[in-house]
Amino acid sequence: MKQQSLWEFVVEQHEKLFSQILEHLGLTFLSLFLAILVGVPLGILIARNRKLANPVLGIAGILQTVPSIALLGFMIPAFGIGATPAIVALLIYALLPIIRNTYTGITGVNPLLIESATALGMNKRQLLFNIQLPLAMPVIMAGIRTAAVINVGVATLASFVAAGGLGEFIFGGISLNNTNMILAGAIPAALLAILLDQCIALLQKSGYASLRYLKLGIPILLAIVAVIYVWPSASKSDLKFGFTPEFMGRQDGDLGLRSVYGIQIKPKVVSDAIMYKAASEGELDVISGYSTDGRIQVFDLLVLEDDKNIFPPYYAAPIIKTKTLAKFPGLKDALDLLAGKISDSLMRDLNYKTDFQNLTPEKVAKDFLTENGLLKEKRNGNAGTIRIGSKIFGEQYILVAIYKMLIEGNTDYQVETKTGLGGTKICFDALANDAIDLYPEYTGTGLLVLLNPSQETIRKVSQHPDKTYDYVNAAFKKQYGIEWLQPIGFNNAYALMMRQKQAASLGIRSISDLKDYLDKAN
Amino acid sequence: MIQVESLTKRYNGKTAVDSISFQANEQEILVLLGTSGCGKTTTLKMINRLIEPDSGTILIDGKSIREQQAEQLRMGIGFVMQHSGLFPHYTIRQNIAVVPKLLKWSPKQTEQRTQELLEKLHLSEDVLNRYPQELSGGQQQRVGIARALIANTPVLLMDEPFGALDTITKADIHAEFKSLQELKNKTVVLVTHDVQEAFELGHRIALMDNGKIIQIGTREEIIYRPKNSFVSEFFAENRLLLEYKLTSISALMPYLHESGNFLNQSNLSESDSTWHALQKLSTDKTHALDYERLSQAFGEYRKSQIR
Ligand SMILES: Nc1ncnc2c1ncn2[C@@H]1O[C@H](COP(=O)(O)OP(=O)(O)OP(=O)(O)O)[C@@H](O)[C@H]1O
Ligand SMILES: [Mg+2]
């Protein structure tokens, strides 16, 4: 199959790209605007009342050190999902530079000038608007500039909470191993950052007079934002769908739902990390997920039956280069100790332990190995180092921990783990470029994301788990010199899920039921 | 008229201004003179409430300055800062117009008054659209003075207004300043540490030391009747020069026996200082005799002053 060029991708997806850019701008501007509205007065306040300066700057500083994804996560209980939590999170990030620069700008004004203005009879308000703010303006503008650039960057993460923006392409592309998609998101994001930076630099040069332009700009900005957020909310169905960026772009995801089941919906794009919680809280009704996820039982969700078989099997197995196996004799035997040992329900249980009982993956791995009589004393050998990678979700962390203990207990090799690699593409590239030696992969992912063969082949090989496994193993060997070792046992296929209660009350058990319900509703 | 009564200001237990009292009258320039750190600026700033005193009272035209809002008070007092204190983000025009704007004058009135002051202070019109940093030190000082004069307040406070200038420019500005009609019916308090400036501009001088006024009086009183050794020592270095400058030719008339027909010949008038006359006469050999006579007359006059 001919590779699609970036330009072709952009042309094909230009509508999506355009709306993502608009959303991105909307998020950035609105949050920046609110941050100015909050930050500048706060800066003025602490400049007048210096005792407050340290606590306020301290709190803003701490808020800024909270990792963006975590911050977005904290927002959900309070603001649900969508634009609101994203804007609040962005606002919080933008606050520190704005407050701090307002404060340093105002306190940095030459005290002689303040005295001079006071001596002429200015009151506090006149002093602020005539002398302090204008003289501090270049510094304040520099703060706003910093905040704007930060916000363009952080706004890419807004797609995790279904707020849209260019993050949809960037993170979708990373999950889907689609470089064009990544670039189609990343290049405009970078350009936006540069553009915004330069625009504000211009304002900065024009000094205090620029405030007048800002007054003009605000209504325009609000109008843009209103159009962005009011327009698409005119959706018909009352069921709210939330899919991960990965699910959105895959044949076995949203595309399959459309083409095989004929389900035409406008889902929100949302991160896996918060999707389940959003579903259990009623923010979303139908979500995409993984069938071994520990959260299914915690949040009391029902996995809808895939009666038309669009989700191919996702059997997990370690993948590794053939030449690496040759280099480390005995490694294969150690890895194969896990073959067929973990069933769907066992995996769900292990996931539950890390995700909800907050046990460390190491502890869960150790307990599992002990129960199965596989745990052996660490040999502390130094015959070489094996580097194991993992994607950024709990299940992979557990598998990596198990493999580490198996290798260190059964061979003389040492293990170095590189966990939390962003997604399929990052893991696979790391493996292909020998940055890691192995990582657990899923047959379905190998088939659809990495190999991406014709529709015909996909239909044929995804009928049966063994066929899928044999196909990917053979193709990987041929194309990349990479082998699939024996599957671990469980099938972590994609699934659609709903809250048990809601599914029961609507009489939905399978995806076809869902389709019928949607048809009736419209 | 400003009346200051037992005014005291302490900073962290250290007394900067120590229970001082004085009075500044209408139509006079009162100079606060003293070495660095003696409390001049502190005293001046208490008059327009930039600094609040620990104790003591200040009356302007018989009314306590605490009776009105600080901003109102300050709008009625022209103030020239120790350093020009012009706003760097305002043009000269805007800098001069700060107080009119606060007083809500019409643009026309402001413009008219600005033009008037430009002329009086010998500033060319093209400075109006420039920014302070584009002006020379002397020009900046004049703009600072224009800004303080614009509202024609009855009281003017000046903190070393000519401090940053070289001696030649200073002499020029002194001359201009003295001849300003604007000042004639104001109460002016001027702070300086420059003895010559004090004698050049002040009608009366208050000599300060360590937060106290040691002596207050006319220039003649200060020079010829020093209250104590501190005062006489303070002026010891400049004494003769000051005396020459202080004495006008009219004061020497009784001692010029062959009455001063040299006056018309050499373009001098009775109101000129002896210093000025001697300077002028010394440059011309034909007036050598006049020079000698004048010196003699001064010597006799001086004997009569020092008792
Ligand atoms: N804000 C302040 N805090 C503490 N001490 C001060 C403060 N302002 C002035 N002082 C002290 O008070 C004394 C008088 O200061 P002031 O500024 O009135 O002196 P000055 O006579 O104007 O001197 P100069 O000729 O150098 O301007 C000095 O000893 C000075 O150190
Ligand atoms: Mg001073």
Automatic annotation (TrEMBL), chain A:
It comes from the Bacteria. Keywords: Membrane, Transmembrane, Transmembrane helix, Transport. The chain crosses the membrane at residues 25-47, 68-96, 135-161, 181-201, 213-231. Its main location: membrane. The keyword Membrane applies. It is found in: Cell membrane. It is a multi-pass membrane protein. GO terms for biological process: glycine betaine transport. One of its GO terms (cellular component) is ATP-binding cassette (ABC) transporter complex. One of its GO terms (molecular function) is transmembrane transporter activity. The keyword Membrane applies. Residues 21-204 form the ABC transmembrane type-1 domain. Pfam families: BPD_transp_1, OpuAC. In the N-terminal section; belongs to the binding-protein-dependent transport system permease family. In the C-terminal section; belongs to the OsmX family. This is ABC transporter permease. The lineage of its organism: Bacteria, Pseudomonadati, Bacteroidota, Sphingobacteriia, Sphingobacteriales.
UniProtKB/TrEMBL annotation, chain B:
It comes from the Bacteria. Gene3D superfamilies: P-loop containing nucleotide triphosphate hydrolases. It comes from Sphingobacterium hungaricum. This is Glycine/betaine ABC transporter ATP-binding protein. The keyword Nucleotide-binding applies. One of its GO terms (biological process) is quaternary ammonium group transport. InterPro entries: AAA+_ATPase, ABC_transporter-like_ATP-bd, ABC_transporter-like_CS, P-loop_NTPase. GO terms for molecular function: ATP binding; ATP hydrolysis activity. Residues 2-235 form the ABC transporter domain. PANTHER family: OSMOPROTECTANT IMPORT ATP-BINDING PROTEIN OSMV. PROSITE patterns: ABC_TRANSPORTER_1 (PS00211), ABC_TRANSPORTER_2 (PS50893). Belongs to the ABC transporter superfamily. Keywords: ATP-binding, Nucleotide-binding, Transport.
